Amino acid sequence: MLKLGNSGAADLSQPRILVVDDDAELRRMLVNYLEGQSMRVLSASNREEMSRQFAAREPNLVLLDLRLDKDDGLDVLRDIRSRSDVPVIIMTGHRRDEIDRVVGLELGADDYVTKPFGLRELLARVRAVLRRNDFGRAASEHEPASGGFRFEGWELDLRAHRLLNPEGATVPLTKGEYALLVAFLNAPGRPLTREHLLQATRVHEDVFDRSIDVQVLRLRRKLEADPSAPRAIQTERGVGYRFSLPVQQY
Rounded to whole angstroms, how far apart are CA atoms 59 and 81? Predict the structure, then answer.
C-alpha cells in the first residue's frame, strides 16, 4: 500500500510522482506543491527507500536528484532503467554538472532541471513528460497487432514490442527508442527531419529540442558495431537522420 502525503484518499486518476532526494526540506516542498496540483506524491531519500516504493507500486514519474548522500544518482538511474521505462526527470544541483546531465540523458532520463529551479517550471516539465508518455501509450495501442521489420539479421516484432539481434537475443529498448526505431523502419532510405522524429517519439517543443539526438545516440549504441561510424542510422547534415540499411516488412 503506497503512503500518500497530505492528500487524503487516493484518486486513481491522479498521476503518482516519486521524489528521490536526500534533502528532506526540498522533498517536503515538492510533495506539498505537487499534491496541490492534483498529483499523488511519494518520497524517498535513497536507493533502498526508492526500491521499496517501486515494489509497492510503480510510479508514473520519478524526480531523481543526481547528488544523493550515499548513493550515486546515475547508478540509481541505471537501477530504474534495468527494471522499468517509467519517465524520469533528473535534478542537478550545479550548472557545471553538464557531463552528469548528458550521461543521465544517455542512460534514459527524459528531461532535467537545474537547482535552484522554479516550481512552475518543474510542474510544466512534469506535465509535459507525463503527457508525452500518455501519447506514447495511446499510440502503441493502435499499432498493428502483428507483423514487424527485418534488417540485416535484426528483427523488430511489433506485436511483442521486441527487438532481436542477429544472434536471436533480445535487445531492450525504452519507449522512446522503440518509437524512434519504428519511425526509421517505416521510412528506410528517406531523410527524416528532427521535427518528424520528435513527433514520432512524442517529444514536444516544451522539452529541450536536442533530446532527439540523445535518443539517436542511445539507439546507435544498441544497433551499431561501431556507433562512431554508424551504418544503420546515418546523419543527414542540415536535415536530420536516415536509416540506410535495406528493410523488409512482414
Answer: 13
Beta carbons within 8 Å of 85's beta carbon, 6+ residues apart: 108, 174, 175
Cα 123 from Cα 38, distance rounded (Å): 11
Contacts with 199 (C-beta within 8 Å, 6 or more apart), sequence order: none
Q: Residue 3 carries which DSSP code?
A: P
240 residue type, one letter: G
Model confidence pLDDT, tens digit, residues 163-178: 999 999 999 988 778 8
- For the chain, how many helices (H) and strands (E)? 8, 13
CB 31 within 8 A of CB 41: yes
Q: Is 80 left (phi over 0), alpha (psi -120 to 50) or beta?
A: alpha
**What is the distance between the alpha carbons of residues 246 and 150, in angstroms, rounded to a whole number?**
9
pLDDT tens digits along 216-242? 988 999 999 998 899 999 999 888 999
247-to-86, 102, 112, 233 alpha-carbon distances in Å: 30, 31, 35, 12
Distance CA 165, CA 36 (A): 46
Q: Whose grid coordinates read 500500500? A: 1
